[in-house]
Fold:
Amino acid sequence: MLDSLIEMTCALGQPQMDYVVVGEGNTSFRDDDVFWIKASGQGMNNIAAEGFVAMRFAPILDLLDHSHTDSTRIQDAMMAAKVEPSTPQRPSVEVTFHAALLADCNVKYIGHTHPIAVNRLMCSTRAEQFALNRLFPDEAVLCGPRSVFVPYLDPGLPLAHGIRQRVGNYMDEFGEAPKVILLANHGLIALGQTPAEILNVTAMCVKAAHIFAGACAVGEPVFMSQADIAHIYKRPDEIYRRARFVQK
Ligand SMILES: [Zn+2]
Structure:
């Protein structure tokens, strides 16, 4: 199982994808009450098993539930959460949102990247407009009827709280987890059941970002209607296609 997380992480980290550079981005995988997450300071494109840390959910979810902000308390919780306390690796600073999403959303894999095409929108006044709309059918099919948009928040607990609240609102409205979360001035989070789904959702979101930027360059983007999005997302033949894309 760790092999599939390693393979997915290396694929997201390939330099030609323009998704991450240096130590950017992180990935995780849930295995019952434990999850594996990229360790702090690791590059994604050539990561190996030593680049990941196994963590328990309970101490981290407790931090989130009780809104502890004391830095000693946070460090203690991180140590308590490590399945092997003696391993030198520290989990990514974004471990809190990974724990929250893996626990709340019933997904197995998360891929968080900072793609250039997406971040040039996230660093613009068009960030929310891109997140809340759909331009073409395959974007709606793979990335979901809408992305969750999160304004800029400090990485760590503040960002995890902000993501958790907005993802909760999305799940109340749609009755299922989102596929894409877009973070203003920061990046993209893809959620899925398989590594293939993470790679496909990330690639489609990046393609949509390129198209959106192009549409803005030649005029105003023309979005799909909510009725057309809902129709294509629920069509049986599209559900079949989506299930085929997810298999691996
Ligand atoms: Zn990030």
